[in-house]
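My current task is to audit a protein record that another person submitted. I have pasted the whole thing underneath without changing anything:
***
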Amino acid sequence: MDALRPLDVRLARLLPAGSLFAVGGRVRDELRSRFERVHLPNKDLDYVVTGLTIAQLMELLRPAGRIDVVGAAFAVIKLSAGGETADVTVPRRERSSGVGHRDFQIESGPGVSLEEDLGRRDFRMNMLARALPAGDVIDPYGGEADIRARRIDILTPRAFAEDPLRMLRAAQFAARFEYLPSEAVMAAMRDAARLVSSVSSERVQEEFAKLFERAGRPSIGLEILRAGGVLEHLWPELLEGVGVEQNEWHAYDVWGHSLATVDACPLGDLSVRLSALLHDVGKPQTKSGPHFYRHEIVGAEMSAAMLARFRFPRTVVETTAHLVRNHMYSADPGLSDAAIRRFIRRVGPSNIERMFALRHADIAGSGLPKRGRANEAFEARVRAELERTPAFSVRDLAIRGDDVIATMIARRVVPASYRGDARVGEALQWLFEQVTDKPERNERSLLLQMLEQYCDRMAAAQDGGA
């Protein structure tokens, strides 16, 4: 039997004997840990309590900790106790009343059995419960057999028509667990694929985020969505790369290369994963023979629009588009120090390691043997320059805009009443270019001297223009 959590014990003491059951991903992952012999930490605490109304359950739970009730159509008790937070509720049954994950008629309470509650869930592997504190697994629909077989299966062919979001869940579960969807799943997906357009952008984004953040091989989920006809209704831009051949440096078409590249990315950074998928998304629209001129520019614009459509966070959208826009950099270890600094400035110090990760994934995703070690030599030079911490933006200069204004007034370039305009930024940018060429110039007294010379040239130009 799997170990009890502290909250399991506390609830079992407060509730009628035989009424408390753990449900959801926790039970599934406990069985996965056992059968697959991997450690899967249990983060979610979801309980179903049988034989009670929601009001009776609330009353019994009050001594356990803080409780809050959420959900309009169906009440769920959020319980916070001993540093843990759990969802506790009573069994419910659902009957679809339309298209979409919210279009259901719901009944709940003592008249609904635990088996009915489990049967409304998405896949057999999730239709499991564990009695607490006894530990017996309740498995009325064969979920344990599916986990043993590393299979994703549905109870009814209407599963996706009733809730189209489940098609995305099937894909991300398959990729994360490396399970195979059954024929029934794929047939039901093909039948319901067009209904995915009814799923809100926010819910789509949540499932894609899980796919790219948690799956070792996101390509598994993407190929399922393609084979199931879902991707053409949801993300058709990706499919433009199917069959688009590339040059001799790639073994795959654009679609295959994109999948191989995203799989080659390490877990942990959503923007890197997304940029790996999208770095060549502009190629089909820019193909000219064996060339794809400016595909990184087109791809950056497409990436920003697509990710915004799915309501990805703004920082993720901007970072991903930035990586796509700059992924074609030349990794020449023989560049001058100033050129290295300009590369760092263009990419941004915070994005350097992301860009390198994308480049390595891009190379791995080519499907061909690696050529030389120029990238590694270039990266060593960049990292060495970063350790020197020279100025990588105007903000890193040893003077500020107020210094520029004061100097411009003192050199009589502007009147004493001057409070600044675009010329201040232009002066700072000029100074920054001088510092980029020679970082040792980023010293206040030297910058002020250079600024005075800059202002004198401005004054001379004004006098000449007069």
Remarks:
- Residues 444-465 form the longest helix (22 residues).
- The chain has 23 helices and 13 strands.
